[in-house]
Automatic annotation (TrEMBL):
InterPro entries: DUF4960. Residues 94-337 form the DUF4960 domain. It comes from the Bacteria. This is DUF4960 domain-containing protein.
Length: 340
């Protein structure tokens, strides 16, 4: 028989620009879409060899509220696939030490929680450490955990008492965005055993005349997380202006990795460094934002954002003109994980 094989005639399928999983043996195409997606009108796109036709045509709008049939033909015979869609949980949960957001102790953490609530609206829930449980995480897709402190970088005892809940959520495929000193959660969960997260700042801070920035690597995921930033140079964006800075870094020191540090770190730990201080990203000696992909027994994702200049509230009361870049990095990170 001439023409493409009937068994694997479909090369690639995307639904709303997200790649679907194709099972040629069973003739099924499976896709998981973000919670809240209108399944009655999604964009179907298929890549097939020359000479193959697809019905409905690539670029069509499909109703996936129930399994939908797609037929492909190579001119000699045809194959039917059934497209199945499921919606991911839609909730974004913020973890904090206060009974309510208003009672959160740290000013940066409180500001982060308020921004997350304002950004995600009805899909937002706040969970205090004391209330953290399997039941509280029902319907949660992404946890946002921002932690800041003076004097110690140890994770809060009240959170560690519920570490088994977070571990279960993460191991089973949950996603977490961890910011500032909260990046230490990746170690507490057992996901990071590199021992390289050792650039830690917990001091009182002080006045500084410089403008600080973040530099991104330009990789595919780095471009997603940095999309929409106000860049001052390619892949470089400011995050805090001159004035008082807490300077609470929580970064990975990759100086001990002498050959292609970012690639080697990713190979060893299944975690891609995508950003550092703007002046340091080219040398790859430090990692400030890392995407921890599923690895070994861990089915979930974590994005750690440990660049100290990415503060949420200015202690001297000034307006930070680059705060929107901080917001966009966090929002892009959350949205990236919502679709995983």
């Amino acid at each position: 028989m001439d023409g493409p094989s009937v068994l694997d005639i479909v090369e690639d399928v995307t639904i709303n620009s997200k790649s679907a999983e194709i099972d040629h043996l069973s003739g099924t195409i499976n896709i998981s879409l973000a919670g809240g997606t209108d399944l009655s009108s999604v964009v179907f796109e298929a890549t097939v060899p020359d000479g193959v036709t697809v019905t409905p045509a690539s670029g069509s709008s499909l109703d996936l509220n129930s399994p939908t049939q797609v037929v492909v033909s190579n001119g000699f015979s045809e194959r039917t696939y059934m497209v199945h869609a499921t919606l991911l949980p839609s909730k974004v949960a913020f973890l904090g030490d206060g009974t309510t957001i208003v009672e959160i102790a740290d000013d940066d953490v409180k500001a982060a929680a308020q921004w997350t609530e304002a950004t995600y609206g009805t899909d937002f829930i706040y969970i205090s450490f004391d209330e953290l449980s399997d039941e509280a995480l029902n319907g949660v897709n992404v946890i946002v955990y921002v932690y800041d402190n003076v004097g110690t970088s140890d994770q809060p005892a009240a959170l560690l008492e519920k570490l088994n809940v977070l571990s279960k959520f993460y191991v089973q495929g949950g996603k977490i965005v961890a910011g500032l000193l909260g990046t230490g959660l990746v170690e507490e969960l057992g996901r990071d055993n590199s021992g390289l997260r050792n650039i830690i700042g917990t001091g009182e801070g002080g006045n500084n005349p410089d403008t600080w920035g973040v530099g991104f690597t330009g990789s595919e995921v780095a471009n997603i997380i940095s999309a929409g930033l106000d860049f001052y140079a390619p892949n470089m964006a400011y995050v805090i202006d001159a004035g008082y800075k807490e300077d609470h870094n929580a970064l990975w020191n990759l100086g001990s990795i002498t050959n292609a540090p970012y690639t080697t770190f990713n190979s060893l730990y299944g975690a891609e460094p995508i950003a550092a201080w703007d002046w340091a990203v080219g040398g790859q000696g430090f990692a400030g934002i890392i995407v921890w992909n599923p690895f070994d027994r861990f089915e979930g994702y974590i994005i750690t954002i440990g660049i100290g200049g990415m503060e949420w509230n200015m202690n001297d009361g000034r307006d930070n003109p680059y705060l929107s870049n901080v917001h966009k990095i966090y929002k892009n990170s959350i949205d990236y994980l919502l679709n995983k």
